[in-house]
Design goal:
Layout: H1 27-42, E1 44-46, H2 49-55, E2 59-61, H3 62-73, E3 77-81, H4 82-88, H5 90-98, H6 100-118, E4 134-138
Parallel strand pairs: 3-4
Antiparallel strand pairs: 1-2
Helix pairs in contact: 1-6, 4-5, 5-6
Length: about 150
């Protein structure tokens, strides 16, 4: 797999947003939802030169391609690389790390929103209801506090 590009929006601006609401604020869920949708829509990776010729581009939207692969494999769990997310916006990544169980429904909803944009037919069940998607965080570095090691 190729290495991620510098975290920047399509217009070249850095992708560091303002501080999120406090972890006790109900709007933290909305902030996480909005931020995760942006992350899934903006994270790009460089493609290998031979792939770039066939695609006509030097980069691709990584998580859009992952959603296409979910459809091809008929799966519902999007694997999100923690290194990508924390490089994209360390502030929201820290909030997600500290309140994962609270924010996990927002992350799942974000995947559903992006899947609806990328693969509209796949984002719906046969009865027309929204398909449930899941998020699995991979490549997470586990750091224990010194006091916890006793």
């Amino acid at each position: 797999m190729s290495a991620p590009m510098d975290a920047a929006a399509p217009d070249g601006e850095p992708l560091v947003q303002a501080e999120p609401p406090s972890t006790s604020s109900p709007s933290l869920e909305a902030y996480a939802l909005e931020s995760f949708v942006r992350f899934l829509n903006e994270w790009k990776v460089e493609v290998l030169p031979e792939e770039a010729q066939s695609q006509g581009s030097q980069s691709q939207l990584f998580y859009h391609e992952q959603i296409r692969r979910l459809r091809a494999a008929d799966e519902r769990t999007l694997l999100v690389d923690w290194q990508h997310f924390s490089a994209w916006n360390p502030t929201i990544a820290s909030a997600v790390m500290g309140s994962f169980y609270r924010l996990e429904p927002s992350l799942r909803k974000a995947v559903q929103i992006v899947a609806r944009e990328v693969e509209p037919e796949y984002s719906r069940e046969e009865d027309g209801t929204d398909k449930e998607f899941y998020v699995s965080i991979v490549n997470l570095i586990n750091c224990d506090k010194l006091r916890d090691l006793r």
